[in-house]
Amino acid sequence: MAAPAAHRPRLRTWLLRDQADVGKPGTSAAPGQAGRPWWRVMCLTGLDYFSTLGYQPGIAALAAGLLSPLATIVLVALTLFGALPVYRRVAEESPHGEGSIAMLERLLSFWKGKLFVLTLLGFAATDFLITITLSAADATAHVTENPHFTATLSGHEVLITLLMVGLLGAVFLKGFGEAIGLAVVLVFVYLVLNAVVVADGLWRVFAHPHVVTDWRHALVAERGSIWVMVGVSLVVFPKLALGLSGFETGVAVMPHVQGAPDDDPHRPAARIRDTKKLLTTAALIMSVFLICSSFITTVLIPKDAFEEGGPANGRALAYLAHENLGSAFGTVYDVSTILILWFAGASAMAGLLNLMPRYLPRYGMAPQWARAVRPMVIVFTLVGFLVTWIFDASVDKQGGAYATGVLVLITSAAIAVTIAARRAGQRGWTIAFGVIASVFVYTTAVNVIERPDGVKIGACFIAGIMALSLLSRLVRSFELRVTDMELDDMAQRFVRDCTRRTIRFIANQPGTRDKAEYRDKAEQIRADNHLPSGDDVIFVEVTIVDPSEFEAGMRVKGEVLHGRYRVLTLESSSVPNALAALLLHVRDASGQRPHIYFEWTEGNPLTNFLRFFLFGQGEVAPVTREVLREAEPDRARRPHVHVG
């Protein structure tokens, strides 16, 4: 029975070994990993972006029918002239992977800012987690639809998808370097095979021009004038929003892009430049493939083949690969598609591992171990299992949630860069980004109206994140929460002067700060605690800055008021935690256990605790003592807390 216990510390060490210090500029969310050339990181984001070719042409055909190529052109125009400029600006404004969420976070303070960020994180989690499960589900569809495996594997879709999600998690548990190396190979092979399928399809179209003529006649008969076609294309293109999925991931994994040795850590110019190359190159490659694949699948594949249960449903290019290039090539194409769809979740996993630790632990809304990579991989993998089971590994059931998550994040990014341009006084860019934001607001609204299930699923993620976040904040309320402390010269002098005698602090809630306030407070504390009148005391006053903040540094200022009263002033998000941190710092600096004196807080204890939880003040004395107890288990070394 002793062996498992002996292994427990080793397992814990392995799980918590790689922790990302994402609170500082220039740090990466993948500890121990050096930056890589932009084109290699593009392959990581391309796993998500390029893999949509596996199902995007089929979705476009179902949504737009014969208008699929025109609707795809609208999507590509929005990609190149809308999403791409927006995310190039996001890369400039937030070069450490925080994305547009950080840009919007700076606009709001207090709890409304935190709740807004949690809402956006909920949609980000919807986007990234559904990317993992939807891509794995589509990979499963390609496995079961392959003529060689249909009879054997049909009916086991959920089990196969769970296995794929589990294997993806295993890769990240082993290490992040292997993920990028594998991504480069998979993306290169997949794009080459797609180029072969598309080139063959275009050759067949040009060799048999009647298919284009038939398509054009059918389109005119169905829609009439070109203006009707354009109008309908503008209406239906929001259903094609999955083709925009790679941009948020592109900026989320930005810390992995190699910068220059002389880069400013706060604004790494080389990383920003290369990330823009990454985004632009990926968008151009994808745009060409989207237009060509949509065109050849529309004119070469019978309409009924796209219907649910049809051989081209969710796998239009794979259908052409089998039909036109033979079973052997089709199977190779299927294997490549299965692998990239399975591993498409890698870019989403990397995005989650970079994004979530930047916010939740800093807000106190996740345990400290949430900064570590491996525990978070396990959490995300288990959530992926749950989503797969709930949606029966169905691509169609998850499509609405995926599109909603993508569009909400892109819309928030467009709004964020519009505000940034306006603040920078760039009138032209403000107008341009405002127009783009309006288009994305329209696109998101149409998607929500037509597929409300996406918002419902996103709301579930948001509710889950908020509930767990607030619970975590409650559990962590009694942590020390001060990342570093700096005393000015006067404050250091006060501490040095006290080292030769008993150090006594009086906690004071500042009012008028006149002479009578300090005289009366000192007399009351001495009377309540039977202190001799000659004992020296120092007043400590904490001013609440933003109680919604959790972790922060603390600066201590010393001053002498009215010629005789020494006062230490602190700014913090929480009175008890700041006082506890000061007491421990003074103990360590002086070698003595300081004493601090409080008055009892009047009023209902529950109300006072809620005031502490939400506003950083309330039950100050007992909470200060509890914070000290958790921070210093040894009672013989713990500072003294007195309440009168």
What do these coordinates show?
It is elongated, with a radius of gyration of 30 Å. The two termini are 50 Å apart. Helix content is 66%, strand content 7%. Helix 6 packs across helix 18 (452-475). Strand 2 (504-507), helix 20 (515-529) and strand 3 (538-544) form a beta-alpha-beta unit. The model is unreliable at 21-33 (pLDDT under 50). The protein has a 7-stranded mixed sheet with strand order 1-4-5-3-2-6-7, sandwiched between helices. It has helices at residues 2-16, 38-51, 56-64, 68-93, 100-105, 110-145, 150-153, 157-174, 176-207, 210-223, 226-236, 246-252, 269-300, 316-359, 373-390, 395-423, 427-450, 452-475, 489-498, 515-529, 575-590, 605-615, 620-631; strands at 482-487, 504-507, 538-544, 552-561, 565-572, 595-598, 640-643. With 644 residues, the chain is of the alpha/beta class. The protein contains 23 helices and 7 strands.
